[in-house]
Amino acid sequence: MRHVLSLLLENEAGALSRVSGLFSARGYNIESLTVAPTEDASMSRMTIVTTGSDDVIEQITKQLNKLVDVVKVVDLSEAPHIERELMLVKVRAVAKDREEMKRMADIFRGRIIDVTESSYVIELTGTQDKLDSFVGAIEPALVLETVRSGVCGVGRGDRVLKI
Amino acid sequence: MVLTGAEIVVRCLQEEKVDYVFGYPGGSVLFIYDELFKQDKVRHVLVRHEQAAVHAADGYARTTEKVGVALVTSGPGATNAVTGIATAYMDSIPMVVISGQVPTAAIGMDAFQEVDTVGITRPCVKHNFLVKDVKDIATTIKKAFLIAATGRPGPVLVDIPKDITAQKCEFVYPDKVVIRSYHPVAKGNGGQIRKALQLLTEARRPLVYTGGGVILSNAAEKLTRLVQRLNTPCTNTLMGLGGFPASDHRFLGMLGMHGTYEANMAMQHCDVLLAVGARFDDRVIGNTADFMKEPRKIIHIDIDPSSISKRVKVDVPIVGDLGEVLDEMIAVLENGEHRQELSATEPWWRQIEDWRGRSSLAFKNSDDVIKPQFVVEKLWEVTGGDAFVTTDVGQHQMWSAQYYRFDKPRRWVTSGGLGTMGFGLPAAMGVQLAHPGAPVACITGEGSIQMCIQELSTCKQYRLPIKVISLNNRYLGMVRQWQQIFHGNRYSESYMDSLPDFAKLAEAYGHVGLQVTKPGDVEAALREAFGRKDDLVFLDFQIDPAENVFPMVQGGKGLADMILSAEDL
Ligand SMILES: Cc1ncc(C[n+]2csc(CCOP(=O)(O)OP(=O)(O)O)c2C)c(N)n1
Description:
- The complex is a heterodimer of chains A (163) and B (569).
- The longest helix of chain A is centred in the middle third of the chain and has 13 residues, at 54-66.
- Chain A is 28% helix and 40% strand.
- Chain A has 4 helices and 9 strands.
- Chain A has helices at 15-25, 54-66, 96-107, 128-137; strands spanning 2-10, 32-37, 43-51, 70-75, 81-92, 111-115, 119-126, 143-148, 152-155.
- By secondary structure, chain B is of the alpha/beta class.
- Chain B has 22 helices and 22 strands.
- In chain B, helix 3 (50-63) crosses helix 18 (424-434) and helix 10 runs parallel beside helix 14.
- The complex binds thiamine diphosphate.
- Thiamine diphosphate is lined by residues 392-396, 419-422, 445-448, 471, 473, 475-479 of chain B.
């Protein structure tokens, strides 16, 4: 089962490697991991997408909580929540592909944020699925680069992760 | 008061009432050593290898209720310490290790004696710190001691660059530090405690299984009271020995791979299992699927939530400090909330006596060749069962666990989790310093002792009258035993050729050495050794090289599937 874990952790050198080290040392999966400081500069917010049985997810949560730098952990996927990911795709855009790429970006509500004679950079946000389908919908040969941020998540409504 | 970083380090140790620091100097810790030199509250013990410094701090911590402290230099000093740190980590031993680091500006430059100590030790510490500002030294050390000693204890490393130890700042040692993300739970959940007692008082075949947690949380007395009150049988893991008195008839001995027949059978067949500060290790329950095929209710008390339902699914988890939880269990029982029909467990006790009747620890003694079990039994007799016993790793460790019957906690010092050969002698140094005048025995093998034998020199310097009991079988015995059983008697590299004359070697270090070859001389040799109150005596017992440790549960097999003696092979 896929789970989205959200963490608050001390914004300390080494905190990230404690988390990633835990996953590799204990053989847990990481599908994606994103981290950046929060409005409180002493803390970072991390979103980890992982997969595992309920027992494994329970262990992951407990092990994360054990790390001294981890302030809080929630499993976002246990309740309604929102996930978003940002993707930048550089595509070849010459001749008739120029129009086609523009049309695809529009359909997926993406934006073209860089234009040269032969390429576009398309910016797209959405769920992992949406980004996957965009990548699936365009001609693979035209894709020069894709950069994805990994998933960010937040609980819906009153669910707030704060100390 | 304005002090240098190095002065602050030493002042912090004084504030923490550290009486011994085990260490080894080097370039990046020279300022700290200079400050140690100028005072006499914190005594420094100069080991001969940094691994030994950490093991000595470990032995000190295990037999006191204090945090062990080690001090090492950067680079090779820190890497030498890693085995010791990992050993302490696996057995949850409270310890603070201070390591020197190259100056801040040199970090990342591949400077002389630079290693990423925080990175290397990260997976084997409870927490670690790199101090980047002299103003942070005091709070960091305070936090290190707090983290090491509270919750599930463990080693904490503080890495301090050399320039930081030379800089100055105002020193105040904080009374308290708050770590917002660190709140070990103390009290167990009352509802869960009642559920547990309900199960235990209604059980037909109850068993209490306890581990190192009972020792670490100083809960042995409470555990004993609870077990006696419930009148259940009790077994200890290797780490838990001494948590329940071995002389109580409710004690079934150690369980697990080399556990007694009665302990393993009871573990497999009980209907309610109370696990206290133990973690269902693979060496303890054998094959997990086989263990779980028997229906039983499991209650698990532990301070570390991640130990619960990690290897086996638990029915009643109780997270909390063992002492507090056991206190509450006893209080609830004494309130008379749960009625217990003591006669309900009579058939179970009969069954257990039946299993006990197999005398799984019986061994054939010999008049010609010394049996290791006999040596440990005699050691127990000669020391009145009240010595501090450290061990190395191998067959001798298992024989010690089986035949030295501990009645008290914090007497038994062994590397259970990591299984570190070389642990025994340096650990005994820490024990002897913590308990001057007390009998300290290091039971070892001729393989293990050579992994830290240089410490005989430290023992001379500090006049540590440890008794080294070497069960010399001229083999890496435990390896040989596995090769005999699982690898068709092919003794690949498990024979120790060209052994030194250990008695002479001990003498060369300035100690007393005795070689013992005849069973008839064992007791006299032990008496002589323990009679020499001021001397380290190295007893080199030439034992039966073919002896194996039984009972034995082979890796991957179920607990009830035991090899009881050589005839079963
Ligand atoms: C540092 C280290 N290296 C290797 C091992 C693997 N090992 C476990 S027991 C053992 C043999 C120990 O031999 P000895 O100390 O002579 O004790 P005996 O088993 O003969 O009693 C070995 C090599 C270990 N536990 N620790």
